[in-house]
Amino acid sequence: MDLFDFTAKKKNTHEPLAVRMRPRNLDEFVGQKHLLDKGKLLRTLIESDQIQSMILQGPPATGKTTLATIISSMTNAEFVKLNAISLAIAELRSILEKARENLKYYQKRTIVFIDEIHAMKSNVQMSLLQAVEDGTFILIGATTESVTHDIIPPLTSRCKVYTLSPLAPIDIKKIINSALTDSERGLGSHQLKIDESALSYVADICNGDVRSALNALEVAASSLKDNETIDLNTIQQAFEFRLNGISTTDFYDLTSAFIKSMRGSQTNAALYWLARLLVSGVDPIFLARRIVIHAAEDVGLANPQALQIAVAAKQAVEFIGMPEARIPLAEAVIYISESPKSNSAYKAIHSALELVKRTHPYPVPNQLKNSTGLYVNPIDTPGTPLAYLPVELNEPSLYTPQNSGMEEKIFAKYNQKV
After folding, report:
1. How far is the C-alpha of 7 from the C-alpha of 30, rounded, in Å?
2. What's the rounded Cα separation, in Å, for the pair 247 and 260?
3. Which residue has the higher pLDDT, 27 or 373?
4. Cis link prior to 365 (omega < 30° from 0)?
5. Which parts pass through the membrane (predicted)?
C-alpha cells in the first residue's frame, strides 16, 4: 500500500455510512427483485453488457445511482457520469463528439449516465434525441420525478423505463443488520446490537428510503459505546428531525387527496393530508392558496365567509411563517371542511366563459353603453325595462343556485320564478 492508497482508505472512513454500504455488485444489491432477480431481463442485459437506453424512475434511495455505478463496473463501454443540474450544453456537446469518435474509430460504445435527468430543460433533452436514436451513445437517466410530467415524450419513447420501488421493511432490516455486522465498511467493529422494536421502527418510518435508515442508524450508533444496544428510544431520537422528500407524482397525489378531503367534508382526512404536505416540506403559501381556491370553488355561496377565513389564513401564513403558520392553516381547513358546499359560482363562470368562446362578440346594448346616456338607474326607478345582454344570446341561464347553506335563499327565489 502506497501513501495515496493509505490516504484514500483513511478518507473513506469519514464517508457517511450510507455511502460506504453501497452495493458493489448485483449480488449485494437488495430489493428491486422484479428487475434484478436472476433471470430477469434487466439483469441479463447488464450481465451480458447489452444494455439499451433506459430511464430509471423511482423515489430517493431506491438504488438508481447505485445500479448505474454497478453497470459502469461491468461494462466494456466508455462510461460517463453526469448530473443534469450542473450539466452545461458545451460539456454535453463535447461528450457527444467523443462518443461519435469512439464508435467510429474504435468501435467502442459509450454509456452516458445522467442523474436528476428531470432537471434538464426541454430543449436540452431534445438535443439528446438524435444521439439516442442512432446509437451514438446509450443513455441511462435517473429521476425521482414523474416520467410523464418531467421527461419529454420523444425521449421517453426512445428509452425503456424501469420503475424502482421503495424498499420493503424486510429489505431495510437486512441492510441495517448488514451494516451492523460489516467490519470493513459498516459498524461491525463496534459490536453494536439493535432491539427488534427499534429495527422494526426504523424499517417502517424510513418509508423505503434506505439512505434515511442508514443515516439514522449512524446517528444512533454515534451516541452509544461499543457493545451497547440500540433501543427504540435511541432510534426515535435519531429520527426526530427528518425531511420527507416527495416526487412530483407524490406531490400531486397528496395535494389531490388534501383538496378532495375538504370537498368531501372529511375534516380528519383533510388535516392528515395537510400534515403530510407540511412535513414533506411543501411551501405553506402554496397550501394557503389551495385553501383559498377551494373556499371559492367548492364552498362558494353556501358560506361566503369561508373565502374570508381562507384569505385571512393566507395573510397570517405570510405574516408569521412556519411553524406557527400551521395553526391558521388548520383553522381554515377545519372551517372549510365543516362548511356546506356549493360550486354554483364555479359552474357559472365556466358556463359564461364557454358562452363567450363559442359565440360572436355582440355589441354592448345601447342602454348600457357609457356614451349614449340611455341608462336608467333601476334603484331609483324600479321596474324600468333594461336590456342587460345582447338580444342574440336569448337570455342564457348561466347561474343555477344550489339548495345549500346560505344559498338556500337564492335557490328559493329562483324556484319561485319557475
Report:
1. 30
2. 20
3. 27
4. no
5. none
Residue-wise pLDDT tens digits, 313-339:
999 998 998 889 999 999 999 999 999
| End-to-end CA, the chain | 96
Nearest residue to 172 (alpha-carbon basis) of 198, 216, 209 = 209
Q: Which three cell numbers stand for residue 38?
A: 436472476
Q: Please say whether the beta carbons of 383 and 352 come within 8 A.
A: no
Decide: helix, strand or coil at residue 115.
strand
With cut-offs at 50, 70 and 90, classify the pLDDT of residue 113. Answer: very high
- Taken in order of first residue, the domains within the chain and their CATH numbers are 32-163 (3.40.50.300), 169-238 (1.10.8.60), 248-338 (1.20.272.10), 360-400 (no CATH)
For residue range 148-175, list pLDDT tens digits in order: 888 899 999 999 999 998 888 999 999 9
Half-sphere exposure of 402 (CA within 13 A, CB side): 17
